[in-house]
Amino acid sequence: MLHPKPRDERVDKAQFEAGIKLGALFHQFVGTPVGFENVEILERAMESCVKLQPYVEEVKVKIDRVKLREKLSAFGYTSLSPDMLHAEVVVKVGKRRVRAVLRWDERLKYPIMEIR
Amino acid sequence: MLHPKPRDERVDKAQFEAGIKLGALFHQFVGTPVGFENVEILERAMESCVKLQPYVEEVKVKIDRVKLREKLSAFGYTSLSPDMLHAEVVVKVGKRRVRAVLRWDERLKYPIMEIR
Amino acid sequence: MLHPKPRDERVDKAQFEAGIKLGALFHQFVGTPVGFENVEILERAMESCVKLQPYVEEVKVKIDRVKLREKLSAFGYTSLSPDMLHAEVVVKVGKRRVRAVLRWDERLKYPIMEIR
Amino acid sequence: MLHPKPRDERVDKAQFEAGIKLGALFHQFVGTPVGFENVEILERAMESCVKLQPYVEEVKVKIDRVKLREKLSAFGYTSLSPDMLHAEVVVKVGKRRVRAVLRWDERLKYPIMEIR
């Protein structure tokens, strides 16, 4: 009988690290003042924060302009909310690479985080 | 001709301090996971954080249960959002006391902060 | 020739979910006002926020009282800092369970997050 | 007998608004990943968030590079901490203008916020 193959710990660690990055991004920045004047610099700053972290190869943050427009207050800006935040991060540990996504699911009313 | 009365600096400082407390509360806690299981402990913890700060006499934090119910995700909780957060703080500097309120204004789509 | 065993996706997902929880906890709460008056309610509130999240079986948050004392300001409180925050979370996805820890590493000057 | 002059409400409101801005800035961004690679974009993004808010005329955010260097982890970055954050904001309500400052006081171990 075959012994089960040992799990590849580097895969697991890559998944763990990817989870850390998305959880961190969401909870650091939700609530931040955002409008059309600063949406781009905010996206780039958020990406810059993820890139600093260990094992990160790539990151893309996108704030939904349609949602942003809908949510603008009478003062021309709003607070960054979960339903306007989209992010992708690629993490590499050893030779293993995982891509994780943060996206709003309107039906579940929830910011889904998942491995792609 | 009368000289203008000097402004009472303690009034101004009380207003400044009240502003700090509301700005801090909002931006520290928006995004926090909240559901019916932890809404009360979260309110009390938020109040405990405000009470630590200089010049605070009283504080009351209230998370809107109706809004909370509306926003619950398929997983039974949501993130604390500006439209469900209400707070009042009383700050005293010297003998001057000000009461400031944080409340959601649905028409302005904005978390109004004001002196009462 | 043997085909490689497929990786157990549930293990990976458990690791991913564990990472999310620790990243979220750290970035939501670092900066929160904390002193000896509210350290316990803050720990319990932080735990309550993690417990709401999918797949969480257990969570323990501990704020280091020695570090807290060292960091207290002249006003008797401070802001929650990475070096005083310790947390453990147990996440279960299907039949697989992982335990993850957040702890300060003084030598690395870094809040290590790791699977135990 | 002279009646006391009514307090100038616009002065008070300017102070209140200045307090909001500093409290918000501190609590939104403390904990953010920061290193020499992203310190400038983070400063500009933080300023952009303050500028969006009502009554703000000017804002300057400065992260202390000496403190940043001291605090860098073995991974080449750290979390934004209160002792490395300096900010100035000018708020104007009606014709009244106030300048408020956030600065770390090493002796008090406290992020002082004050009107200048």
Give a written overview of the molecule.
4 copies of one chain form a homotetramer. With 116 residues, chain A is an alpha+beta fold. The first copy, chain A, has helices spanning 9-29, 39-51, 65-71; strands at 33-34, 56-63, 78-79, 85-93, 96-105, 110-115. Chain A has 3 helices and 6 strands. In chain A, a hairpin with a 4-residue loop joins β5 and β6 (110-115). The radius of gyration of chain A is 17 Å and the shape is elongated. In chain A, 47% of the residues are buried. Chains in contact: A-B, A-C, A-D, B-C, B-D, C-D. Chain A binds chain C through residues 2, 4-5, 7-8, 11-13, 15-28, 100, 113, 115, and chain C through 2, 4-5, 7-8, 11-13, 15-28, 100, 113, 115.
Could you give a quick summary of the protein structure above?
With 116 residues, chain A is an alpha+beta fold.
Largest interface: A-C, 25 and 25 residues
Poorly predicted tracts of residues of chain A:
none
**Extended strand count of chain A:** 6
Neighbour order of strands in the largest sheet of chain A: 2-4-5-6
Helix percent of chain A reads 25-40%
Structural class of chain A: alpha+beta
Radius of gyration of chain A: 17 Å
Number of helices of chain A: 3
H/E element order of chain A: HEHEHEEEE
| Percentage of β-strand residues of chain A | 25-35%
What coarse outline of chain A follows from CA principal-axis ratios?
A: elongated
Biggest sheet statistics of chain A: 4 strands, antiparallel
Average of per-residue pLDDT values of chain A: 93
